[in-house]
Amino acid sequence: MFRIRHGSKDKPQRDWANGGAIADPAEAFDTFIEARTNIGVRTDRLVVVDVDAHREGLETLKGHPPLPATYTVRTPNGGLHLYLRAPAGADLSGGTDKLGQGVDIKTGPKSYVMGVGSTFKGREYLLERDAPVAECPAWLLERLVAAHRKSAEAPKTLGELDTPASIEAATAYLKDAAPAAVEGSGGNEMTFKVACQVKDRGVSEPVCFDLMWEHYNLRCLPEWPADELETVVANAYRYGQVPAGRDNPAAGFCAVELPKPENSRSLSYWVGDEPLDAEIDWLVDETIQRGGIGFLGGKSGAGKTFQLVHLALSGAMQRPFYGRKIEAGFGTYIVAAEGSYSITHRVKAAAVHAFGLDSRAARQLPLKFTKGAIDVMSSAGLEAFIADLRQVDADMRREFGVPLGLVVFDTFGQAFTLRDEDASTEVTRATKIMHSVSQTIGATCLATHHFGHGPERLRGSSALRANADFVIELRKNGEVFLEKCRDAAECRLGWAELPIVQVGTKKDGQPITSCFVRELARPNGTAAAPEDGFTSVQSGRDFEDALAKVPSGEAAAVEAAFKAARSGKPDSRRKAWDRALKKALATAYVLEGGRLYKRGPDIPDMSGF
C-alpha cells in the first residue's frame, strides 16, 4: 500500500513501484489511520478485475464463468474491483478491456488500484464484500498468460510428426479422455486446449483437424462447423506455448534441441502442493456434493416432488436434512416440467407444517420455478437457461443473502425430452448438460427420476447411475436411502411420512389439500426400545449429558457438546457420536426438524396433524 494525493487517482506520493509501498500491516495501520490521503494498493501477487459500470462492464462480466466470492470494493461510479490471488511466480499480463468492454485487469508489481476509503470527485471507494481474497480461477489465469510468451511464430517440433504411434495416441485421447466443449461454458477455450493436447502428442495441424473432426466434434454441444474448428486448431498450432510432439514418446530418440524451460503455469499439480486433508464441499453434509449432479429416484407415488420441496426449504432455512448438516443456506430453482400447477401448494404445506412459517413468510423464500418444461437441449436454449440462472443467483444473493445452490429438473425425462431412456448416448448428453450447468453456475444439479422394474436401479440406461455423483432412493415403505455417493458411504438417511393438510379452499367451499414431508427416525408405528439398554453404556450417558446442556434439543449443538466432553482424536469422537446417535434413535429418542426429542407422555402424537 502507498499514499496517493487526496481526491486523486494518479498522483502517488511515494516511489510505489520500486520499494516505496508498505507491506507490513502494523506500519500500514499507523500510516493511514489518521492521514487525509487516498490509498493505492499494488497488485503484485494479485489479479484485480476492474469492472466499469458506465461501460457495460457488469453485462460483459455475465458472459464469463462466475468468479468466486472474494474481497470486493465498490468504485465511485458504481463499478467493482474484485480481488483475486495470483499463483506465486505467475507471469500474467493485464490491460484495458482484457475480458471485453468495460472489464479491465490490473495485475503485477507495476500496477495498482485504489483502496477502500479513497475518494475521487467527491465519492468514496466502499467495501462491497469483506471476504478473504480468493484464488484466481483457472479459466482467468489462462486468459492472462503474458503476451510476450505468445509468439506469433509457430513453435518448433520435437521428433517426427504423424507417426502411427502418435496418431494412435491422439485418437485414444480424443475418444476417451478429451473433455467435450459446451457452448456458453467456455467451449472455445476447451476446444483450443484439446487441440493443444493433440498437437503435443506429435501430429501435424492438418491431421489434428481430421482427427478432431472424426473423433471429437460429435461430442461437442453443438458440433463445430468445419471452418470454425479449423480456425481453433490453427490457433493452437500458432499460439501454443510448447512444441508439437512434446508428449510424443518417440521424440526422446531424435536428435533435437530442447527448448529452455518456461516459467509457465502448469495444468497439473503435485499431490504435495495440495492439502491432503481438504474437506469435500458439501451442500448437504455427507450426502450431496456442492457442484455435483445426482438423482432423487423412486417408484411412482413415493413422494419425489414433496421430498425435493423439503430439500429446497431445508436449504433456504439452513436446517438439517434427515439429520445431515447444511453448513450454508442456499436457494433453489426448479424446472417443473410436469406438475407445476401444484408446486405452490406443496411449498405452502411444507413451509407452514414442517418448518413453522406463516403463509406470508412462505411466499418469501429463495425458491423459483418454471411453469412447464424449457429447452435445454439446443445451444440457444441452454445459453438462455444459463443466463436466467445467473440472474436468479444474483437476485437471491441480493434479496436473501444466499446463492443459488440447487437446480432441480422435475422430472429428468420430461425436462430433457428424451426419446429413449435406454440409449446411453442420449442419457450421457443430458447428464453432460447437467454437468455444464453445475460447473458454470457453481450449483448442484438434481433430477427426479423413476426407478425401473429392478428396485436397485434408476429406469433406463446404466449411464444414469454411472454419471451421477449421488443417488437418493425413496422407497414406498417411507425409507429414504442414500443409494450412491462418490464421497461418502451409502446408508439409510431415515424414514418419512406424507401427512395430508389443507392449504386453501376452493370456490365451492371444498378444501385444497397437499402433503408435506415429516422426517422420522424409524418406520411410523415402530415402538421404541427400553431406555436402560441405552443409558447403561457410557456413550448413552454422555449423550444424555450433552442433551441436558442443550435445552432446545438442536441436534448440531448436542453433537458439539457430546464431542467436547470426550477425549481422543476427532475421528474417534465423530464415530462415537455416530454410534450414540444411532443407538439413541433406535431406543428412546426421535429426530424431527433438526431437533432431538425424548419419547414420553409429553411428546404429542403427530400422526394426524
From TrEMBL:
Q: Which SUPFAM superfamilies match?
A: P-loop containing nucleoside triphosphate hydrolases, Prim-pol domain
Gene3D superfamilies linked? P-loop containing nucleotide triphosphate hydrolases
Q: Which InterPro entries match?
A: DNA_primase/pol_bifunc_N (IPR015330), P-loop_NTPase (IPR027417)
Domain DNA primase/polymerase bifunctional N-terminal per the UniProt entry, residue ranges: 1-140
Q: Which domain of life is it from?
A: Bacteria
Q: Know the name of this protein? A: DNA primase/polymerase bifunctional N-terminal domain-containing protein
Q: Which organism is it from?
A: Hyphomicrobium nitrativorans NL23
Lineage of this protein's species? Bacteria, Pseudomonadati, Pseudomonadota, Alphaproteobacteria, Hyphomicrobiales
